Amino acid sequence: MRTDAIVVGAGIVGISVALHLQKAGRSVLLVDRGQPGGETSYGNAGLIQREGVYPYGFPHDFGALIRYAMNNTIDAHYHWNAIPKLAPFLWSYWMHSRASQHEAIAHKYATLIEHCVTEHDALAQEAGATDLLRRKGWMKVFRTQAQQDERLAEAERWKRDYGLNHRALDVAALRAEEPHLDQSLIGGLHWTDPVTVIDPLGLSKAYLALFEKLGGRFAQGDAGTLAQDGDRWSVTLADGTKALGMDAIVALGPWADVLTNRLGYRLPLAVKRGYHMHYKPLGNAVLNHPVLDTERGYFLAPMRQGVRLTTGAEFANRGAPKTPVQLARAEPIAKTLFPLGERLDAEPWLGNRPCTPDMMPIIGPAPKHRNLWFSFGHAHHGLTLAAVTGRMVAEMVSGQKVFVDPTPFAPARFG
Question: Which residues form a coiled coil (predicted)?
C-alpha cells in the first residue's frame, strides 16, 4: 500500500494533522494500535484554552514546594521510585519555570494559543461538530481573599499583555452563574474567551469522520515499526501488510520517545499522568461551566457522560500501575463544592500527558532524517492546540508558508 503521508498516532493531534494534510490534497494513512481518540485525548477537561498563554509551570513559591514534598496534595503526586529517572527533567522544568523564563516562553507560546479557538471552529464547522462546543468559558472559584486578589491581578496583566478577556465575579454574580456551588465561596474569575467541549472523544471521532470522508484512511498498526524503506517510510499494519509513504509524521503523544529514541533522537520528553471520574449530579443540580477549585487543585467539567472530576499531575514511570490517590483526596472535597452523586465509571480513568521541560510542544522537521516530522509534547494543551498544530504541520509538509512561525517549537532546539 502506497500513500503520500503516514501519520502515526491517532489522538486528537494526530487526527488533526492527518485531516489537514488530506485537506491539502495529500493522500494520508493514519495509524494507531488502538481506537482513535481513545487514549490521552479522551481524558482531558474539555477546554480549548484561549487564555492559556502561560503553559503550566513548576511552582516556585516555597509553600507549594513544601506541600508537594509531603506528597499528600490533590494537584500533584509522585511515585518515589520514579524520581531518580525523572530528576533531570524536573530540574530543567523547574529552571524553565522561573518567572523571567516563563514570561519569555509565554510570548512564544501565545502565537499558538491565539489561534486555538478559530482553528477548532473551522474544523468543527466542516465536521458538523459545532454542537459539541460551548461558548461559556470556564471559571476559577475562590475560598480565600488572598488567592482571589492574586489571580485577578494576574488576569489583569494577561489582559494588558495578550488581550485576554475575563470577568471578576463577586459572591452575587457567582451564585447567579452557578447557584448549586458551595455557598461559602467568596467569588470567582470567569475566563470568557475559551471554548469548552462536552465530549472530547466525540470531537476526535467527528474530525476522523471528516478525514475519512475526504478520502483519508485509518488502519490499526504498530507505530514502532516505522522505518526508512528506500526513499520512503514504511509501517507494518495489524493485518501484516506494509504501508509506504513519502512523508511520516510522529504524533504519538506520551509514547513518541519510544520511537524517536530508536531513530537516534534524545528528546527530553516526560509524562505527567492524570485521572478522572464521572458523577451523576444529585437532585436537580446543574453545573453550567467548567470550574477549577483553585485552592484545592481539582477540576469539575460538565460532560455528556456526567460531571467529570479531573485531578492534577502524577509523576510516575510510564506504565506503572494506577494509583488514583489524588482522586480519592479530591472526591469528598468536590462533593462539598458541588452536589455530586454516584460514580458513573467502573473505575478511575488514567491518562498520560506528554511534556517537555520548556513546556512547549515539539513541532517540525526531524533534524536527522528527510521527510520525517514531529508533532507531540503538548502537555496539558493537546486538545487546545490540536487544530493549530495540524494546520502548521500540513503547511510545513506541503512546502507552504506556515501561518505561525514554527521556529520556537522546532525539534532542533534540543540539539
Answer: none
Alpha-carbon distance 51 to 155, whole Å?
Answer: 9
Angle at 204 between CA 404 and CA 14, to 5 degrees: 50
Q: What distance in Å separates the CA atoms of residue 390 and residue 332, rounded to the nearest whole number?
A: 39
Residue 62 pLDDT exceeds 70: no
Closest CA to 54 of 390, 386, 384: 384
CA dist 15 → 250, 256, 327 (Å): 11, 15, 30
3-state helix, strand, coil in the chain (%, to 5): 40, 25, 35
pLDDT of residue 415: 77
Per DSSP, which regions of 69-183 are E strands? 76-78, 133-134, 138-142, 166-169
What's the rounded Cα separation, in Å, for the pair 353 and 258? 15
Distance CA 319, CA 300 (A): 26
pLDDT in tens, 146-188: 999 999 999 999 999 999 999 999 999 999 999 999 999 999 9
Q: Specify the number of domains making up the chain.
A: 1
How many C-beta neighbours within 10 Å does residue 306 have?
Answer: 20
Place of cell 506504565: 319
Any domain includes 308 = no
- Are 49 and 43 a contacting pair, CB within 8 Å? no
Instruction: Assign 338 to helix, strand or coil.
Output: coil
Answer yes or no: is 190 within a domain. no
Within-domain flag for 230: yes
User: Phi, psi at residue 408, to the nearest 5°?
Assistant: -65, -15
Calpha distance 149→160 (Å, rounded): 17
Q: What is the domain extent for residue 10?
A: 2-41+201-268+357-414
Quote the cell numbers at residue 343: 460514580
Residue 378 maps to a domain? yes
Q: What is the CATH number of the domain that holds 394?
A: 3.50.50.60
- Residue pair 288/362 in contact by the 8 Å Cβ criterion: no
In whole angstroms, give the CA distance from residue 219 to residue 212. Answer: 11
Residue 363: strand pairing partners: 375
Look at residue 311 in the predicted model and tell me its pLDDT: 93
